[in-house]
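Consortium newsletter contribution from the modelling node. Members have asked for a concrete example of what our holo predictions look like. Here is one, prepared for the manganese (II) ion complex that several groups have been discussing at recent meetings.
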Amino acid sequence: SKVGILGIPFSKGQPKGGAEMGPEILRRAGLVSRIKRFDYQVVDHGDIEIESIPGDKPDGNVKNPRSVGRANKKISDKVASIVKSKELCLNLGGDHSIAIGSIHGHCRAEPGLVVVWVDAHADINTPLSSPSGNMHGMPLSLLVKELADRFSPVEGFDWCKPCIHVRDIVYIGLRDVDEGERWIIDQFGIPAYSMQEIDKMGIKEVMHHALKNLDPNGTRPIHLSFDVDGLDPTITPSTGTPVLGGLNIREGQYIMEELANTGRLSAIDIVEVNPLLGSEKDNMVTAETTISVIEKCFGSKRGG
Ligand SMILES: N[C@](CCCC[B-](O)(O)O)(CCN1CCC(O)CC1)C(=O)O
Ligand SMILES: [Mn+2]
Ligand SMILES: [Mn+2]
Ligand SMILES: [Mn+2]
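And here is the predicted structure:
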């Protein structure tokens, strides 16, 4: 089977320069050759061309709306074509706003998909509830049908029609959820396994219940959106919004092994690696941790 790799050097969904260097650091750390070890043929699509849009003034409190919108339209088109050509689409971010285009594009090719969101954050603030105006904290709010009438369309997103339901999402690793996000999660009953549930139930039970709730018949394609800040900042220090008390590397690896076992992984985002926010050592630790977790999606077995 084939993996299509797409670099997305984009960072306008948040204010810290360097997130656009994520693809480069992951490639340099040997991600592609690690994936090639398992029986996957790797198609490297290179990096998406990111246009800079001068004078991209906020839309309400939403920052860089046109830049984020333009980039994500391109991402959607590219991801749709990669998935349609039967490649497992591996998107290297870039900040988490790239998930708007990656999930939108994935839905165009696989309309019945479900979303596994591994993250310290819920990333479902609407433009009105966001405390920062940074779009990397909003991707899911632009994608779920149930929130479409809660805010007016964001400048640059007229192409983006919501394509998933709240019940098609499961959260793993939450530990920093804003008030407005908490309200949405409770109001719509979005399954959410925070670090508290993970400590209470253990990662085995969490994965069992998460996948069972999400897709009882085990038939639907899976979109994994993996924010490296879902892992503990001691093992992924080079990231923009670190939060203490995260997933350890074995929990991360177990999550990916269980997803690989479904055989239904169809697209993966790896986001929020920012090499400008750490030392050389921090960057090496972050890249190696990320690769050793992500490679379990591709059949790497700890038992050999
Ligand atoms: N929820 C935050 C963070 C989003 C992180 C996006 B990512 O893709 O990395 O998951 C705001 C978080 N907030 C920042 C200030 C703190 O005092 C409280 C938490 C937001 O800006 O929406
Ligand atoms: Mn996060
Ligand atoms: Mn049980
Ligand atoms: Mn995120």
